Amino acid sequence: MAPQKFKDERRYVKSKRNKHSKAMKRFYEEIRRAQTANNDDGQVDCSSSCTTFTNTEDLTFKPMKSE
Question: pLDDT, tens digit, for every residue of 36-46?
Answer without folding.
Answer: 776 555 555 55
